[in-house]
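Q: Can someone sanity-check these two? First one:
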Amino acid sequence: MTPTKPGNNRRRSPRYDFQTEGKYSVFANQALVQSGSARTLNVSAGGLLLALDRPVPASCKLVVNLQWPNVYHDAVRVRLIASGQVVRVDGTRAALRIFSHRFHIAELRSKPARTAVSRTVAALLPPRPAA
């Protein structure tokens, strides 16, 4: 990922061109009012620029659940769940200021996936002293 060219940029964190897909949900008074599909256009430490399947209201609370690039040789599925407030809307594009986020790691059910993760983690650890 490389930072987006600054131009007339007043943001605190650099933006990175990054595209992945997922789902979004819009909430009002803690009730789900809209949901659909989303695609990121760029990301930064504080926010996301999203392309949505339909417009959302400005200032709404939004939760997005995105696929994240696979780690451990495609053996683990990681998802980013972020929530925040829509600060700008342009048609079906929405800028989300992130208030909280977490990564969700899918459970490893298959033995080959567990083995691949174990090997990758073992390669990252320092060698064990001889017994």
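And here is the second, same format, sequence then tokens:
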Amino acid sequence: MWAAAIADLGLGPDEFEQLTPRQFDAAWRRYRDAEERKDRRFANLMALYAESHRDHEKRSEPFSADDFMASERDNGPLFPTEAEIMEMPLAERPAWVATIRSRQTAEQQRLSIETALARIQSSRKDSNGR
């Protein structure tokens, strides 16, 4: 994260240290979105050029920007999975958990809360002997 903040976001070390995980995640998402827009523009130009030189006999489908876009699959995920977080030392987990939670949608958060409430109610019923 530190290297991405310094090299990609252009933050100084002091600025990085003042960010919360949620703030870093928001800044990183804005950076990634801006980079993707730039990549999409360039991919459109590449598709236009390739399409103008396409041999219709060798390739029946027209080129599109997607043919020239890199994907996360190519580069690998930026953030660890929840399983990887659970394997981390305890001291490193809170920042990653906060980052993962900040990326959840409102629906996911609502479902998580409902699931937790259902578990609490179930354990209360079990402890009271139903």
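A (reply): Looked at the second one. The two ends are 49 Å apart (CA to CA). Helices lie at 2-8, 13-18, 21-52, 72-75, 82-87, 93-103, 106-127.
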